[in-house]
Amino acid sequence: MKLRFIIALFLAKLSKPILKLTGHKGTDFPGKLALKICPEFLRYVAKPRHIVCITGTNGKTTVTNMTVDVLERAGRRVLSNRAGSNINSGVSTALLNGVSLINRPKYDLAVLETDERSAKRIYPYLKPELIAITNLFRDSIMRNAHPQYIADFLSANIPAETTLVLNADDLISSRVAPENERVYFGIDRMPTDLTECPNRLSDIRICPVCSHELKYDYLRYHHIGKARCPACGFCAPDYDCAGTDVDIPAMRMTFREKDETHEYPLLSDSVFNVYNMVTVITLCRRLGLSHAEISKAMDGMEIVATRYGSEKVGNVTLTNQMAKGLNALASSRAFDYVSHRPGKKELFMMMSCMTDERHWSENTSWLYDCDFEFLASPDITHIIATGPRAIDYKLRLELAGVEPEKIECIEDAEKAAEALRFEPGSSIFMFYAADQLDYVFKVRSKIKTLAGKAAER
Amino acid sequence: MIIEVLYPEIANLYGDLYNAEYLARSCGAEIVNTKLTEKPRFISERVDLLYLGGTTERGQEIVRDALRPYVEDIKKRTAEGGVTLVTGNALEIFGEYIEEENGNRLEMLGLYPIRSERHMLNRYNALYLGELDGMRIVGFKGQFGHSYGDNGAGLFTTLRGAGLNPETKAEGIRDNNLMMTYLLGPLLVLNPPFTKYLLRLLGVQSPSLACEKTALEVYERRLRDFSEPGRNFVY
Q1: Domain A3-178+269-298 in CATH 3.40.1190.10
Q2: Residues of chain A with CATH 3.90.190.20
Q3: What ipTM, to 2 d.p.?
């Protein structure tokens, strides 16, 4: 074993109690330090026998956390990076936590969220047994270019021995690494399905074989659905595992696997989260859990609080709904979901990418791939756009048909909270990006305080 | 007025399609979407504006193949003063070739004497500030390489950022009323003066724009931001 690795392991381990003493918990510093000293740290660090990685444009954090929770509730010891980042430093930190000072593995199983663009720095070293890809959509223009670029990047870096768990309803991610063994999941036809795309964004509209326009037997949103080519006969893969008879009003579904079926209560009423749930069940089944174990473990489980949370405050319901800036798909899904909630609504937008604004200026092109049109609804009475690009949101909302008098631009989000109206019985939805969660929750606290005061008046 | 959008099923990255929508909403034009399997409308009928947006790398080859039978028609339209707007990496399709990292050359339509380089692990993301006939132009670039060769004075004169490549101030290509730029996304929404210029070229005497007041506020704000000396232009 390389001397550099031994030094890296020792010093990175040593950094952990120091960080703890200085109040720096949950950072990637140990992994960063290990990689700085030994760039091939991930090659040499001892690994659990079973490694599962979860990647994709949207849903990977939710799927990772749910999978870890289910496995732990079912009695498995799981190493994960849920407290850290999903790039190589976060994965290194997690694996560092999973070995002793003499590099002996302490876990048999790791479930790791991995950033798509970090595949090259992670997968060749980890050689995961399973990689689940939730989906691939258009994402940050700067980092991800377009989903086919990410699909090609993943294909080039996924080890040949890895089994893939793929979304058959996504024609982009389901075609990644075509030579690898694979398991397809999906959701059977639902009563709410369409056959034409209702969204601005659809990342695959032509047949990957012959370039003719694709048709959909059923389409959920964007390019997610059962596609086929009427010209050459190409079609989406069949499901090995599927959510079937999904009944959102009754909040239940059946999970079908070969000839076996099992009933599950739904954890969320959004189709996007039904996909997340189907992914988790498929993964846990591959890891040997029974349906009874999975079902029991999912009982009472909630979607990650940083992604979604709802509570009654004063006379209003306050909901935080991650909408991920720079990501037209995530925002469109969030807008669609919120537009279908009953009652009067105020929207509070904190989606401007603060990190970008600090060193250049956010490329706002994605706003024009995003379905702001969902927000042109009489039930939505007031929209506050915050952040450095608030005025760009105002323009996009006006172009989407939202009456200008409903829109306010207040760049300082804390000040903007004071402009909320807190109409009794209404709901306030906060949309926010992932790059400023601490600030989002600070503003959320302020909104809660203001809602309490409004109720006392 | 008719705006023909070429191949929106594949040339649709980064909100590009909103350019045609914004124009149509501003002047009441009809949008005609031409699919890859269809013969373009401009070959046989009057089309006021022909528009092509950015696409994937594979998409560039598909669009090239779709347009190849119509190269002479494009030349004729351009010579006759037909207005055409091409954004993002669609510009590269009209050059001589795209050279990949491994030296492989993908022949393109050869309408203009430029060659493009493609570096898939070295994406160029940048802000852009330029000028056309005294109008300031703001925009964004996101591309896997630059183009080189003779693009004359280009479409825009670069004030900050890269032109057709970092060594030239001439951004894009202008040939009569054919306008091509590497700028991507909703260029026309972000640049009300340029959009009015385009509408005047299309014969609209006193153009007004959809949501013009707010669009101008957005433009002025971005112009101010992009003119800040300390603003970093490359991502």
Answers
A1: yes
A2: 308-456
A3: 0.97
Mean pLDDT of chain A: 94
Please give the CATH superfamily to which domain B2-227 belongs: Class I glutamine amidotransferase (GATase) domain (3.40.50.880)
Percent of chain A with pLDDT strictly greater than 70: 99
Q: What is the pLDDT of residues B29-72, one digit of tens each?
A: 999 999 999 999 999 999 999 999 999 999 999 999 999 999 99
Looking at the whole model, is its pTM more than 0.80? yes
Task: State phi, psi for A73 to the nearest 5 degrees.
Answer: -65, -25
Chain B residue numbers touching A200 (CB-CB < 8 A): 17
Burial of B156 (0-12, 13-18, 19+ CB in 10 A): buried
* Confidence band, pLDDT 50/70/90 cuts, at residue A305: low
Closest chain A residue to B231, measured at CA: A360
- CA distance to A1, A141, A367, B14, B29, per residue, from A397 (Å): 58, 21, 10, 17, 22
pLDDT score recorded for residue A359: 78
Distance (Å, rounded) from C-alpha A408 to C-alpha A402? 12
What pairs with residue A164 in β-bridges?
A: A131, A182
Q: Are A106 and A99 in contact (CB under 8 A)?
A: yes
* Residues 6+ positions from A150 with CB-CB distance below 8 Å: A57, A116, A117, A136, A139, A144
Q: Which residue of A has its CA nearest to B140?
A: A363
| Cα–Cα distance, A68 to A61 (Å, whole number) | 11
> In the prediction, which pLDDT does A326 show?
83
Task: Determine the pLDDT at residue B54.
Answer: 97
Looking at chain B, the whole-number percentage of residues with pLDDT higher than 90 is 98
Test the B interface: residue of A148, A363, A396, A409 with most B CBs within 10 Å: A363
A308-456: which CATH number, 3.90.190.20, 3.40.50.2300, 4.10.480.10, 3.30.2350.10?
Answer: 3.90.190.20
B151 burial type by CB count under 10 A (0-12 exposed, 13-18 middle, 19+ buried): buried
The pair of structure tokens assigned to B128 is 């852009």
Query: What are the tens digits of pLDDT across the range A212-266?
Result: 999 999 999 999 999 999 999 999 999 999 999 999 999 999 999 988 999 999 9
**Which H or E element spans position B115?**
strand B114-117
Q: What is the pLDDT of residues A345-402, one digit of tens each?
A: 999 999 987 777 777 899 999 999 999 999 999 999 999 999 999 999 999 999 999 9
Burial class (CB in 10 A: 0-12, 13-18, 19+), A406: middle
Contact B58 A148 (CB under 8 A): yes
Kindly state the tokens that stand for B34: 């031409």
Q: What is the pLDDT of residue A1?
A: 61
Tell me the chain A residues in contact with residue B14 when contact means C-beta distances shorter than 8 Å.
Answer: 141, 365-366, 368-369
Task: Classify residue B190 by its DSSP letter.
Answer: H
Indicate the residue of A213, A328, A366 with minimum beta-carbon distance to B35: A213
Query: Would you call B186 an interface residue with chain A, using a CB distance cutoff of 8 Å?
Result: yes
